[in-house]
TrEMBL record:
NCBIfam families: hisG
Location(s) in or outside the cell: Cytoplasm
The record's note on its domains: Lacks the C-terminal regulatory region which is replaced by HisZ.
Gene Ontology CC terms, in alphabetical order: cytoplasm
Top-tier EC class: transferase
Full protein name: ATP phosphoribosyltransferase
Self-association state and partner proteins as the record states: Heteromultimer composed of HisG and HisZ subunits.
GO biological process per UniProt: L-histidine biosynthetic process
Recorded family membership: Belongs to the ATP phosphoribosyltransferase family. Short subfamily.
Pathway(s) served: Amino-acid biosynthesis; L-histidine biosynthesis; L-histidine from 5-phospho-alpha-D-ribose 1-diphosphate: step 1/9
This enzyme's EC code(s): 2.4.2.17
Superkingdom, taxonomy of origin: Bacteria
Substrates-to-products reaction catalysed: 1-(5-phospho-beta-D-ribosyl)-ATP + diphosphate = 5-phospho-alpha-D-ribose 1-diphosphate + ATP
Biological source species: Azonexus hydrophilus
Amino acid sequence: MTGITIALSKGRIFDETLPLLAAAGIVPTENPETSRKLIIETNQPDVRVVIVRATDVPTYVQYGAADIGVAGKDVLIEHGGEGLYAPLDLKIAKCRMMVAIPEGFDYQNAVRQGNRLKVASKYIKTAREHFAAKGVHVDLIKLYGSMELAPLAGLADAIVDLVSTGGTLKANKLVACEHIMDISSRLVVNQAALKVKRETLQPIIDAFARAVEK
Ligand code: ATP
Ligand code: MG
């Protein structure tokens, strides 16, 4: 079996990976936005795309249900990365991991005073490491979405979330107050598949690498 399965999430990852796939001569025959199919064929008979949640991409690739995939650095940090080889920064789906607070909250002062902060996030591992490195005491609250609501509803003093334009923060009267890291998406490859299917996989990886450098 030399068939290749590529795990992608729909939305920006799928859209921004299309030009890279095209550079490798791979064109999906359907758009997951309009098709309800979770397995999408491509112009290459031996290449298919599976559509999974962004946070599930590393899992599919780790267990070999997909040979390669595209996942954000945010997702990869939380997942860990065992069994995964991440050879390429694809420089797509770029944003920043930030600490954000309600307008008017004196975060720096609270930190200086050594106050214990309640921080809500989908990115518990990233948040824990960030505040531990700063020596700030935090109670972390795990959320799965709509982080912006947490400070407004009184669930948390601050959030750790991805920010691109800042529009969502602004609409909810929040401001970013600390930059944690720049985020972009990476190509992830199943380590065993890379050995067994190198003849098929390596040209795809190389084509992606050349397309990223353009
Ligand atoms: P879902 O929306 O299904 O809950 P998700 O939010 O993880 O899942 P996307 O919004 O498609 O899925 O985000 C996928 C990846 O794109 C994220 O893991 C992150 O790396 C990146 N990303 C998230 N938000 C932005 C943004 N505003 N601008 C650019 N890239 C982003
Ligand atoms: Mg999202």
